[in-house]
User: What shape does this take?
Amino acid sequence: MTLQQIYYALTVAETGSMNKAAEKLIVSQPSLSGAIKVLERYAGIKIFLRTSKGMTVTGEGAEFLTYARQVYQQYELLLKKYGETGDIKRKFGVSAQHYSFAVKAFVEMVKHFDTRNYEFAIRETKTYDVIQDVGTLRSEIGILYLSSFNRKIIEKMLCENELSFHHLVNCQAHVYLWNGHPLAGEKSIRFKQLREYPCLSFEQGERGSFYFAEEILSENHYGRIIKACDRATMLNLMVGLNGYTLCSGIICNELNGDDYVAVAFELDEENQSGTMEIGYIKKKYGVLSEIGEIYLGEIRRYLRKTEL
Assistant: This one.
């Protein structure tokens, strides 16, 4: 097993395609395919399934690639410190549900560093992918929430991926809508007041379920619901359709703009718990990097401001 073979496998997993990986690596497709086969034979497992849609990582392959990625990252750090070129960029990634404060903290964290020497990535993505990204070390940190409804399911997934959840803040459910919405001026909003308006929800893909929803109280029945994949589209739907979404109430106007408001959600007999515990996840036995610590420091700093 060689570092080159490991790098090849990581690139195939990243691109999901043998052809795309070969182009990125500047090697022939037969050479790459042969190297992967040799690696699989040496490891004694099937790392990839070759399908008509591309290369899919197997269960055994996902575990193998988790360790392989750690090995290769250490190799990159070794080269950076002792190699002849010394120009390898250090990588840091965050995967998060759609929280503007997580993006704001990322912006402030990046300002601490010379981006010519680092490769930063922030991924606003599906709940399942947040867990998978951190589980496979694609990202060092993930940001998501737990509630009385989803806690057992999410914690089970975290355990299966050797991840730990760490508390950042508790917050109560809010209704997020544009300031021209008929309910925008209310001090609080009850569930029955929302029935004539479309509920907006972030799409969770094929693996989506009520437990993976980014919006609290997802177990409720919503007569009108519209899915979106990104925050910008969600905001446009709020204006165009008088839609709303249920959120933490922690909103960064600097990024989302001043045209939106978060109104407290009023609990009732059917909705007796609206508490969201937002936290970060990381590898259970991993140590946060200096960049990771600075990022979390920026998040905590921003959250403290919102409490004032």
Notes: The mean pLDDT is 88.
